[in-house]
Amino acid sequence: MKIELKAILEAEYGFEVKQISDAPRQFVADTYFIDSEAGERYFCKVVEKPLFVESIMAGTAALSNLQALGFERACFPIQTSSGDLFVWLNPKLIIVYTYIQAEPSYDYDFFTLGALIGEMHALSPRIRADIPRERFQFEHRSLFERQFEAALAGGDQSELHLKFRVLMQGREPKISGYYNKLNSLIQQIKPEDHELVFTHGDIAGNVLVKSAKDLTIVDWDENRLAPKERDLWTLERKEGFLEGYRNVFPEAEVNESARQYGVLIYYFYALLHYFREIFDGEPGAHRERMLTDLEGYFDGWIKPYMERLG
Fold first, then answer.
1. Counted domains in the chain
2. Residue ranges with strand state E in 75-161
3. Which of 136, 140, 229, 308 is the most exposed, having the fewest neighbouring CB atoms within 10 Å of its CB?
4. What is the tens place of the pLDDT at every residue in 240-256?
5. Are residues 274 and 176 in the same domain?
């Protein structure tokens, strides 16, 4: 893979590659650090997951717009020799980003992050890229329902699928209850009541931290024009966060319906991605790891947000 990637990068981006090293693997992509012969370092993503490709492509143009508008606290895609922001080799998407010398962390100042998100939202009307819009629906409903039914049935009789079935049958009542709540919210929400802003969708865990107030937002994989609550629901109860956001939007209040919708739609898209990886991902250790991660997801950081839904 690295030999192939080296040839693609040199052909498409026009720099000589000195070294390619593994970066921490993400759920969405294989990632690499790229060192050029000229002494520059870049961050590279190779994406082959169909559910993410369209939004990531759209997101590169939006990020480029943000950069042009003076927003500095993000990693930005660099252009290919032909001026494109990515390389599309169906079904493979390759993007090279600026490299940020900092580590991912949750140890940041919440006021600063709130103000940074507010600054990004405030630029929304000036972004000209064609960004996916929130339609207040679960766009992959049929796929989820098929895979949920298959998960409850357990797939084949392999040990992995038997474990999967036991896990899902134990979680079925709560998942079904949350799914009913999502469907109810979709029926109740009136799109015209919600201003849409440019959102990241998963900021809390995607911040590089040089110091508590020196932050960079990364992993812009699911950009969307959506209610502000899409970027607020994981953080709105953190001390100082809303105060930071209101430093930009003084009258901002969290809309409860939009907050609940943000939690639920995130939850079900995550389940959909786990299901796909367990059923169709690379056989063996990868699928086992995805099953273990799914169990940890149910009982991990998302749990208090789900319990707050009632």
1. 2
2. 87-89, 92-98, 103-104
3. 308
4. 999 999 999 999 999 99
5. yes
Q: Are residues 29 and 171 in the same domain?
A: no
Does residue 142 sit within a domain? Answer: yes
Specify if 237 maps to a domain. Answer: no
Buried b / exposed e along 113-138 (16+ C-beta atoms within 10 A): bbbbbbbbbebbeebebebbebebeb
What is the gyration radius of the CA atoms in the chain, in angstroms?
20
- Strand segments, DSSP code E, in the chain are 17-22, 30-36, 41-47, 87-89, 92-98, 103-104, 197-199, 207-211, 214-217, 224-226
Same domain, 170 and 59: no
The Cα 226–Cα 137 span in angstroms is 12
- The verdict on 286 and 171 lying in the same domain is yes
Whole-model pTM: value is 0.93
Is residue 183 domain-shared with residue 284, that is, in the same domain?
A: yes
Torsion of CA 165, 166, 168, 171, to 10 degrees: 170
Domain range for residue 155?
137-188+255-308
- 142-157 tens-digit pLDDT: 999 999 999 998 667 7
Over the range 193-221, which residues count as b (16 or more CB within 10 Å of their CB) and which as e?
Answer: ebebbbbbbbbbebbbbeeeeebbbbbbb
pLDDT in tens, 205-236: 999 999 999 999 999 988 999 999 999 999 99
What would the two tokens of residue 244 be? 């930071």
Same domain, yes or no, for 34 and 160?
no
Cβ atoms of residues 85 and 61 within 8 Å? yes
How far apart are alpha carbons 240 and 122 in whole angstroms?
A: 19
